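Most newcomers find our protein records easier to grasp once they have seen one. Nothing more is needed to start thinking about how sequence determines fold. Here is such a record, shown just as it appears in the course material:
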Amino acid sequence: GMKLIEKEFPLAEVNAVAEYESGFLKMMPRETTERIRKLIRLSQLRFTDPPKLRNLMYYPARRPISASRALTLAAALEDSAKKEELLSAIGFEEAIRRARHNGVFIPLYAIDPDRNLVKKLFGGNPKSFVVVDPMAGGGSIPLEALRLGFAVVAGDCNPLAYLLLRATIEFPAKYGRRLYELVNEEARRMIEYAQRELGRFYGERDTNYILFRVARHDCGGVLPIVKTGALDKKREIYVDFDFDKEAKAPRPRITDKQPPPLVSCPYCGRPVSEGALQRRWIEEHARLLGALLSGDEDAAEGVDSVYMLAAVQYREGRRRAYRAPTEEDLRRLKEAARELARLAKRGELAIPLSEIPEGNEVFSEVREAGLRFWYQLFSPRQLLALSKLASYVRSRAETLRREHGELGVAAALYLSLALAKTTNFNCLLTQWDARTQTIRDIAGSQYALGRKVRLGHDFGEAIVPFVNLPWVFEAEEEEGEEEEEEVESTRGGILPVLKLLCSSLEGLWSEGVDSVYLWDAREIDKILPPASVDLVHVDPPYYEQHDYAGITEFYWVVVQHALLPVLDDLFPPERVKIAWSPYEPEIPRSLE
């Protein structure tokens, strides 16, 4: 017979909640909140921003999960069901009930569907109904199919997507609260390790470092490669330079006037070509990293002639303030480079040394400019942080596997995702945003705007131990301090999402029925007999808009490096249905 989706569908309600879910509360269009007020028939309504799936880890083109839930159920139910029953089953009526009770709108994804009603409407056990998403990406469709109580088979040909599917659906459903508690404890441990091992390379009150690339002009004088020098446009805070003609070096200072562009050399008066300076910088940067990675500690002395610390952001009460760098700041930068060389000498580096693949379109301009290897996308201090944290995740992965088996391997996976998230904000390709006074990550700025990653001017260093890592995890305080709210708002951390996933999925996984694969979507009939599938629900990848392999390869090499001891556990042969090994740094592109 016909399915409900072929007869009717609550478009207005689903569109409104999906639009709300996709936005950011602070920037929510008024029309969206007005539409929800009308649907709920409440003029006074407060809005919340519970943990979002995307906070687990960046993945291109994530779909709203509330829409996935409604579409999956409408495609599974017979047309004898009614639109009102569908709304009730997906939790919309519950959202209205709560809103009227406490004046707060809780988005659909933070409310569980009514599984008893689903069972009743379905007229049998939903677990006997198999939903397949062959190109599952970030996992919105299989996540919601599982929450509704259906059997779920999901797959993707991208290894980062495959790991995200296991982290989003499989592990929270298998291990529930135990998983959340273990990862919360491991997060605290990793933050403490970072503070202990890396703390001395950063100032404790500092929140961000803004650096400029510097290179030598033809006369031998050091020049900054700078566009505006803006730190905070609203309050008119800029970086300008005093050029020391004897030392042929720039000294940064904080000012309230935008400095004029550097068109002629302050040392010799001849014209300055930004292109020539960038090329020279790339050569010097590659040479310096090469020397440090070969164990040459003395090379660290030259750090400030390649990357110049232009300004330090720190907290002053609730405001963000800026100061010019001190000798101590410079000493820390050099000491971090020395430590990197010492690790290299001892053979203890855990950084991706592979080449950026020629087929990677997203990073092609960076590659053509002369940065051919993944490790060259970091400054020495950023590489040190990456190496120390990747080594840490490796050693924890081995211990956790020994102590907890698959549950421990799963916990290590979330630690590696946290590392990939810090890397997104802590590499040379980030940009300083003088509007928000924060670092713009690779994915959210460059890739989102132009589908390419380029070398900018200034870049930021997120203070990994003190600021970035605690934000990425957003671990809970010791037990007992937790406030029992209806739903928590979040700053964007991994743990609040995991908590939501574990509480809503616990106990819903059936081994041997539900599964996640690394596969080629065109070959799934060889893996699943077509008669065994009831619904193929797929949101096909937007290949015209996204180069999935291109952008995710950067995160894949980080995650892969951190998880080396447990790659075989995460990619067992029965799950991997393509000719590819998890030890390969390159992501499968064309599966011809």
Observations:
- The chain is about 45% helix and 15% strand.
- The CA atoms of residues 201 and 335 lie 7 Å apart.
- The first helix runs from residue 4 to 7.
- Residues 479-487 have pLDDT under 50 and may be disordered.
